[in-house]
């Protein structure tokens, strides 16, 4: 077990395979920043699939038991199923977070390669609202088709909805009703001040407590104990047995004290917090021929010095600090 200075074990690694995305979601990659003249990473700057496998293997050797592929949008990178096939033998749970725009035709290949589970981002079932949030006029039905394809391929699906005041809070009950009674777990995420480009204000946050109250008034809920230390979402189940929802409440109910997550950017920088300011260059180590032992030693040293707890310290002063963009290291 590899512990940081606050006694938190290293258990999760989120791997960004690309900084590109085909959506321009207002809370992640707003068009006014990520426009046609924005410079994305060149292909040679990205970690290769073999380099990603080497890095992931080092993390698994230190106790990581969950690997999550993110982006950007991971499915815009060609042949991601080949990467999954490289990572599957490491023995960690292997998951992927996607906007599902490209999921339907790829789900079977991803499952065959060894992907265990899929998390789909879907912020509303109303086309007008969803298209306003993804800002590329992408329709809801094609996301639902991707969810169906993943389920048909045998992969459990979680659905994540970021809720922003004045934009999509009216979708909360509709989404709860739609996914109630299915095998899919719906999770609501408080709008967060990730990065510096999404115009975050506290007034835009719909607190998790309010979301629970809205749903429970229509479909009574009862709390569920966490499944493991560091579980991000607080779990609630429908009293009538209609399944579960989750609430990810980084703003109003911070969970830094149990955070076990590390993140690798698409060009191989290690971040020990979603709200990190700087990363540690692992790509240089890999490309100069560092051994697996040396790579593991460096990672353990970085994690061992970790004291991150941004959400517990959040204030007007911290909100204005420079931070890595979510599109660069995933959510």
What does this structure look like?
By secondary structure, this protein is an alpha/beta fold. It contains 12 helices and 12 strands. It has helices spanning 49-61, 80-87, 107-113, 127-134, 140-152, 172-179, 208-218, 283-287, 292-304, 310-313, 316-319, 326-329, and strands spanning 12-16, 66-70, 93-98, 117-121, 157-163, 185-190, 221-224, 234-238, 244-248, 261-264, 269-271, 280-281. Helix 6 (172-179) links the parallel strand 5 (157-163) and strand 6 (185-190). The protein is globular.
Write a concise keyword list for the protein shown above.
single chain; 12-stranded mixed β-sheet; globular; 12 helices; 331 residues; alpha/beta; 30% helix
Number of H/I helices = 12
C-alpha Rg (nearest Å): 19 Å
Q: Helix proportion of residues, in percent?
A: 25-40%
Q: Low-confidence parts lasting 5 or more residues at pLDDT below 50?
A: none
Mean pLDDT reading: 91
For this structure, the quaternary state is: single chain
The overall strand count is 12
Arrangement of strands in the largest sheet: 7-8-9-6-5-4-3-2-1-10-11-12
Q: What is the H/E string?
A: EHEHEHEHHEHEHEEEEEEHHHHH
**What gross morphology would you assign?**
globular
Between the first and last Cα atoms, what is the distance in angstroms?
A: 24 Å
**Main sheet properties:** 12 strands, mixed
Structural class: alpha/beta
Instruction: Report the β-strand fraction as a percent range.
Output: 15-25%
